[in-house]
Design a protein that fits this description.
Shape: globular
CATH superfamily: Gcn5-related N-acetyltransferase (GNAT)
Order of helices and strands: EHEHEEEHEHEEE
Largest sheet: 7 strands, mixed
Strand order of the largest sheet: 1-3-4-5-6-9-7
Oligomer: single chain
Strand content: 25-35%
CATH class: Alpha Beta
CATH topology: Aminopeptidase
Helix content: 25-40%
Distance between the termini: 18 Å
Radius of gyration: 15 Å
Number of domains: 1
Bound molecules: coenzyme A
């Protein structure tokens, strides 16, 4: 995919950013993409208050990708300390998936985590049911650490679970020093 401009999200972007993330993660529209959480969760993925808190936090940022003035992708990056970065809420507009933008966003996240926070390793958390997504993260250099994290049942800010066994597996990769892809 060509002619994509990347920049950090600003508070004025929150409405369109919220729409993009929800469209990628939830609901029937998300099935136009190749991977979605629609089989695991209903409800919301995030909300404008959470996005505002992310943008106000010096240890977090939302990288965004724009084509012809339209928001087409985004990724949350966060500093977890001890040279460890995190990315999440990775979203590409469902009808534009499979053309390489997701990989470019991950590469942008790696570069920003290294440059801004001095990260030398990156961690992500994924539902183990999402086998094709995990396979993609493996191709991007990530491997399971063996750790798991609980799903926050009862907190509807993260969505409405459609099953009672949700949890996350943690995956990690190192960032080559000076080569942040
Ligand atoms: C995950 C996501 C960001 C990927 O974005 P994308 O633009 O499709 O990513 P890319 O085009 O760079 O890469 C897609 C990869 O999936 C593969 N792929 C495409 N269609 C696929 C399919 N039907 N089944 C399995 N893999 C498929 C491609 O071959 C490619 O792999 P490669 O990079 O090794 O060649 C996007 O699918 C999305 O927004 N999903 C919904 C939100 C989400 O689940 N985020 C991640 C949560 S942790």
């Amino acid at each position: 995919m060509t002619d994509i401009a990347f920049r950090d999200a600003a508070p004025a972007d929150i409405p369109v950013l919220h729409r993009l993330i929800e469209s990628a993660y939830r609901g029937e529209g998300s099935r136009a993409g190749w991977t979605t959480e629609a089989d695991l969760l209903a409800g919301q993925r995030t909300d404008p208050d959470e996005l505002a808190a992310i943008l106000a936090d010096p240890d977090q940022a939302m990288l965004t990708a724009w084509r012809d003035g339209d928001l087409v992708g985004s990724v949350l990056i966060a500093n977890r300390g001890e040279e460890t970065g995190y990315f999440g809420m990775l979203s590409v507009s469902p009808t534009l998936q499979g053309a390489g933008l997701g990989r470019r966003l991950v590469e942008a996240a790696h570069a920003a985590l290294s440059e801004r926070f001095g990260a030398r390793r990156v961690r992500i958390s994924v539902f183990p049911q999402r086998e094709t997504l995990i396979a993609w993260y493996r191709r991007l250099g990530y491997a399971p650490t063996g750790e798991t994290l609980p799903f926050p049942y009862g907190d509807t800010r993260f969505g409405l679970p459609l099953r009672d066994d949700l949890h996350f597996i943690v995956m990690e990769r190192t960032l080559a020093w000076g080569l942040c892809t």
